[in-house]
Amino acid sequence: MEFTTQQDIDAPSEFVFECLSDFQSFEKAALRRGADVQRVDNLAELGLGARWDVAFSFRGKSRDVSVELVEFAPSDKAAYRASGQGIEAVMGIELVPMSRSRTRMVTTVGMEAKTLSARLLLQSMKLAKGQIGKRFDGMMGDYAKQLGKRHAKRSA
Predict the structure, then answer these.
(1) φ, ψ at 12 (rounded to 5°)
(2) In the structure, what pLDDT confidence band is assigned to residue 134 with cuts at 50, 70 and 90?
(3) E strands within 1-141?
(4) Would the pTM count as exceeding 0.85?
(5) How many domains does the chain have?
(6) Up-side HSE of residue 132: CA atoms within 13 Å toward CB?
(7) For the chain, what is the radius of gyration of the CA atoms?
(8) pLDDT digit string (tens) for 15-27?
(9) For tag attachment on the chain, is the N or C end more exposed, with fewer CB atoms within 10 Å?
(10) CATH number of residue 146's parent domain
(11) The domain containing residue 36 runs over which residues?
(12) What is the DSSP string of 104-141?
């Protein structure tokens, strides 16, 4: 199952990529939402192979997910592989400069089931794919607006 959305952001691609690479802010946001995030690699700098273990509650059950940065091209794209509970997901983010001050962010999330229980979960998600897709598009749209506002404040 795959979801794709694209958002136009009123900020240069370098700024957008800098914000997308600020993993400490994402870790803090996850912690505020009740997740436990631990970085488990030994890399001095962020780059390919960076890994995190994430524990959170979803549908009343505790979930453990391992996330790895599998593609990283500054100012261009990044991709992450997450696996846990029998589901493997890949999230790719690609930035396309439209002008000096405008960037298109294309986000794709693909999920694949590795176990029978995971197949049942994905099957129920497929039934609600339209609704989930709208929520995903809305979340990414809100994030794009936040990035545009953050850039406008920084530039002022």
Answers:
(1) -70, 155
(2) very high
(3) 2-9, 36-39, 51-58, 61-73, 77-84, 87-99, 102-113
(4) yes
(5) 1
(6) 13
(7) 16
(8) 999 999 888 888 8
(9) C
(10) 3.30.530.20
(11) 2-155
(12) EEEEEEEEEE-SHHHHHHHHHHHHTHHHHHHHHHHHHH
